[in-house]
Design a protein that fits this description.
This protein has eleven helices and 17 strands. The chain is an alpha/beta fold and about 375 residues long. The strands form three sheets. It has an eight-stranded mixed β-sheet, sandwiched between helices. Strands 4-3-2-5-6-7-8 form a seven-stranded mixed β-sheet, with helices on one face. Its EC number is 2.1.1.35.
């Protein structure tokens, strides 16, 4: 739960605690001083999801207290959410209050916004969305200048687009990112730019190739591709791969190849254990690459043992992690061949215990 007041004093104390915790986890590996990237205290979160709670004839935005499914907190605003989300919350509420077709059986609202000012709102229902819903949503979307999506079991209606387009500036160059509804995107836009810039700085300029595992929509891939000869990026999610392909076209980048493989599958492909038709269909010849660096940003579970053994072959590993415990476990497996050369803490989720971090490992 958020503190009563989002003060700088409270924030700095929590950030210091996070640094202390990360330092303790990295201490066995002789980690260098951790570079800390602080977040804005408010309006940093570009995504928000609310339950819609009914009391009498009124429906309200609601969240549950941490660890509880019964302790409901009714909301009118959310200070940690972007200014765009806070602007839209009362406007969307007024829309469903004014139209029974938008409020009937409504149980959830999801907001997706960007630093560049775009917004998409998804309304979820316990009854089928239909043409009447779309007719009611159309003028709301037009008036607010947003996209609206209605979801019910097995059905989705889109008014506008089913994605937003983010604009990020990395090393004085602007990159355009398509972010589809329902797919993963970094929630803290300011911190995301810091993370990408840090990763690019750690990579440096190289004449060889970069391998990226878990590339998502190309969040890190696009800027890093400007610093190497070629990039081979892998991602298992079809939605993310589709967005990444659109982003390559939009940004006119031609030195990236995308493989729709999980990290485990790519390990099997690169080690010759298994052949994949998806690589052949994408005209990807693994033998043509000269990899010097691998970049990984795995899910909370970290990398499996086989993937750790695969990336051990690389002279340099840049690792961004959303779970410091699994990061430490992976570093332990890699520490016999690689040493920690840099470490960073990115406060992606202020006012929580969550730690986002990055490390660079170089072959001994």
């Amino acid at each position: 739960m958020l503190p009563t007041e989002l003060t700088d004093t409270a924030y700095q104390a929590q950030l210091a605690h996070k640094k202390q915790r990360l330092s303790a986890l990295l201490a066995p590996f002789a980690a260098p001083e951790i570079q800390v990237f602080a977040s804005p205290l408010q309006h940093f979160r570009l995504r928000a999801e609310f339950r819609i709670w009914r009391e009498g004839d009124q429906r309200h935005y609601a969240m549950f207290a941490p660890g509880s499914k019964n302790d409901v907190i009714l909301l009118e605003q959310l200070p940690i959410a972007s200014e765009k989300i806070n602007q839209l919350m009362p406007q969307i509420k007024a829309a469903w209050q004014a139209n029974e077709k938008l409020s009937h059986k409504l149980f959830q609202a999801e907001f997706l916004t960007t630093l560049s000012g775009e917004a998409l709102v998804t309304l979820c229902y316990h009854c089928p969305v239909d043409n009447d819903w779309q007719a009611a949503a159309q003028p709301v979307a037009e008036q607010l200048g947003i996209s609206l999506i209605g979801r019910s079991r097995g059905k989705r209606l889109v008014v506008g687009q089913d994605y937003v387009t983010e604009q990020l500036t990395i090393n004085q160059r602007s990159f355009s990112y398509r972010q589809p509804e329902g797919s993963f995107t970094q929630p803290n836009g300011v911190m995301n730019q810091q993370m990408i810039s840090w990763a690019c700085k750690q990579l440096g300029q190289h004449e060889d190739d970069l391998l990226e595992l878990y590339c998502g929509n190309g969040n890190f891939t696009l800027p890093m591709s400007t610093q190497v000869r070629r990039v081979l990026a892998t991602e298992i999610s079809k939605t993310s791969v589709k967005a990444a392909m659109a982003n390559l076209t939009e940004n006119q980048i031609d030195n990236i190849q995308l493989a729709r493989l999980s990290a485990e599958e790519f390990t099997q492909a690169l080690t010759g254990v298994r052949e994949f038709r998806r690589l052949q269909e994408a005209n990807i010849e693994l033998g043509s690459y000269q990899f010097g660096t691998v970049f990984v940003d795995p899910p909370r579970a970290g990398m499996d043992s086989a993937t750790c053994e695969l990336i051990r072959q690389f002279p340099r590993i840049i690792y961004v992690s959303c779970n410091p415990e699994t990061l430490a476990n992976n570093i332990e497996q890699l520490s016999s061949t690689h040493r920690l050369a840099a470490s960073a803490l990115f406060d992606q989720f202020p006012w929580t215990e969550h730690i986002e971090s990055g490390v660079v490992l170089e072959r001994r």
